[in-house]
Amino acid sequence: MGSRASTLLREEEIEEIKKETGFSHSQITRLYSRFTSLDKGENGTLSREDFQRIPELAINPLGDRIINAFFPEGEDQVNFRGFMRTLAHFRPIEDNEKNKNPTASEPLNSRSNKLLFAFRLYDLDRDDKISRDELLQVLRMMVGVNISDEQLGSIADRTIQEADTNGDSCISFQEFIKVLEKVDVEQKMSIRFLH
Amino acid sequence: MVSLLQTCFSNLSCSRAVLSRGHNDKKPQLSLKQEIQELRGCAGCLTSEFNLTDVLFFCRKAMENVVDDDVTKRFSPQKLDSWNLLTRNNHNFCHISLRLKVVWVLGLLLRYGVLLPLRVTLAITGICLFLVLSTLVGVLPNTRLRSCLSDKVHLMGCHICVRSLSAIITYHNRQNKPQNDGICVANHTTPIDGIILANDRCYSLVGQLHGGLLGMIQRAMVTSSPHIWFERAEVKDRHLVAKRLIDHVADKTKHPVLIFPEGTCINNTSVMMFRKSSFELGCTIYPVAIKYDPRFGDAFWNSSKFGLVRYLLRTMSSWAIVCSVWYLPPMNRKEGEDAVQFANRVKSVIAAKGGFVDLKWDGGLKRARVKEAFKEEQQELYSRLVVGVSQGADNAASDSAKES
Predict the structure, then answer these.
(1) Considering its fold, how many domains does chain A have in total?
(2) A159, B80, B172, B249 — which has fewest CB within 10 A?
(3) Between residues A20 and B47, which one has the greater pLDDT?
(4) In a domain, A20, yes or no
(5) Nearest C-alpha neighbor of B182 from the set B332, B81, B390, B37
(6) How far, in Å, CA of B172 to CA of B197, rounded?
(7) Which residues of A touch B62 (CB under 8 A)?
(8) Does residue A177 share a domain with residue A114?
(9) Residue A148 lies in a domain
(10) SS3 string of A31-78?
(11) pLDDT of B169 over the 90 cut
(12) Which InterPro entries did the record assign (chain A) (predicted)?
């Protein structure tokens, strides 16, 4: 039983994660159980291979981009805190949170943070702009070999043209928000975690 | 004592789900096409070929799969609702009370001090007896007497092995028991499956010839009864395998062949893809569903974690192996049905009877990566949405036939 104790989650850690992400106690323990079942190396962190082992994720055309979102810049391992932080973006927004004190720090699952998460899926080099090349690369990931370069190029051009308001041929985060302003992001980017 | 355990553990349930979605949901799952169009509709762009919102669909799907997926949890032991006093099933439970610890220690002493030695002795006796008698019967000339005796020897061997595992088996629908003219297929959880089934009637097993103790048993078996063992090199030759199976099945005096089409052990909560090779032969199929009760001992063999000997020791030091076997009515391939459709039909019948989840995923994913072709299929489905608008209605017809 001794060695197992070191991998069990301590109460203080659970409290910290609760404060940072807003998940409930039981949700955190359940997600920890999921984290450990994915962690084949049993070293307390997940690598990209651990994610790739999930077949449904491996066949997702944007699987690699989503997996990448878990890992901090330039790192190859993610610990449980990082895992929860990324998942927190997909926590549904509860009604009592909407009227919270506006000066308190923004929760991870706010509309703005959810949109930022989606924006970063396109923004490959993290320069806060979606260039034509980046858009093309993501499009290519989603359609595979089924569409020609020219057609894909014209789709990218049209998308940028429609979204770009300041004429720099890139989509900034503000322009991205404008395109998605009518989308119910709170619902479309939320997962129903069991309580 | 039982109520003490129940009160201790009623609120320590280790739940099996993290998400509320999927099979329990009343809302039907939307297809890729429907969801993306819903997203585009929200953004006010119904006619565009591509929209920045498309990515939200893949994103949410991916996150749902990170949190809970259908496949990876099939390759580890089933989680229990309350503890059964076996350390190996003690995943997220922690120390409750001294009284419980005492009970657990008593249980440990009983299992390892009394049950395990008894069972191991019985098993060794049984195997030795079987080897000797089987070889003796094999010496007799090939007459009806010999096959009668060999059946009895096999059954005796199985009865002893079953007792040594403390297996409590309930057979249902015995009128559907496999006959000599077909192939028996069942879901696979453990190497013991074969013994559980062979306890009721004799089967011919198919498989690769091993070395060591297992190989010795295999060779002894074949001296008195026609099993189909292959050398390692022959296993790859599919035509050879098919021919031997067909020849065997055609001979009505020989026992039905026992095959596990999943190809690997799954943890008894689901049935995974059936390999189509057994279903191509044109023989009658006798489906059997085997369901283990996980409370008395986990029967699943996690072959990537430990080997066969350790597995047997674990099994023999559990409380018992309690299982139900359902014999299902024989099935034949229908007109115009190909082997894959037939295999899926048999699989869904077994899944329905045993209360398993019917999955289309390959059990081989336990060790191997998923094929790129599935990802390409997803990309193809999506690209139809992107170019579909410009190519018009003739694509829409083929779209509705496919679901994501």
Answers:
(1) 2
(2) B172
(3) A20
(4) yes
(5) B332
(6) 12
(7) 57, 60, 62-63, 66-67
(8) yes
(9) yes
(10) HHHHHHHHCCCCCCCECHHHHHCCHHHHCCCCHHHHHHHHCCCCCCCE
(11) yes
(12) Calcineurin_B_homologous (IPR051875), EF-hand-dom_pair (IPR011992), EF_Hand_1_Ca_BS (IPR018247), EF_hand_dom (IPR002048)
- Say if residue A73 is in the same domain as residue A15: yes
**pLDDT, tens only, A122-177:** 988 888 888 999 999 999 999 988 889 998 899 889 888 888 888 888 889 999 99
pLDDT score for B21: 43
Q: Per-residue pLDDT for B85 more than 70?
A: yes
pLDDT of residue A6: 42
Structural domain boundaries enclosing A16: 10-88
d(CA A26, CA B212): 49
Task: CATH number of the domain at A71, please.
Answer: 1.10.238.10
Residue A26 lies in a domain: yes
Task: Kindly list the residues from chain B whose CB atom is less than 8 angstroms away from the CB atom of residue A158.
Answer: 48
Could you tell me which chain B residue has the CA closest to the CA of A37? B73
Put simply, the answer to whether B69 touches A54 (Cβ < 8 Å) is: yes
CA distance, residue A99 to nearest chain B CA (Å):
25
Residue B248 has pLDDT above 60, yes or no: yes
Q: Mind telling me how many Å the CA of B49 is from chain A's nearest CA?
A: 7
Q: Measuring CA to CA, which residue among A162, A7, A127, A145 is closest to residue B45?
A: A162
Domain limit, last residue, from A61, A88, A115: A88
Is the predicted pLDDT of residue B315 greater than 70, yes or no? yes
| Cβ pairs A/B, distance under 8 A | 170
> Same structural domain for residues A28 and A64?
yes
User: Which of A57, A88, A119 represents a domain boundary (last residue)?
Assistant: A88
* ipTM for the assembly: 0.89
In degrees and rounded to multiples of 5, residue A138 shows phi and psi of: -70, -40
Q: What distance lies between CA A31 and its chain's CA centroid? A: 16
- Asked if pLDDT for residue B152 goes beyond 80, the answer is yes
Looking at the fold, whether A15 and A61 belong to one and the same domain comes out as yes
Residues A169 and A131 both lie in one domain = yes
* Distance separating alpha carbons of residues B267 and B265, to the nearest angstrom: 7
For the CA atoms of B50, B53, B57, B58, the dihedral, rounded to the nearest 10 degrees, stands at 70
Asked if B14's CB is within 8 angstroms of A33's CB, the reply is yes
Do A17 and A83 lie in one domain? The reply is: yes
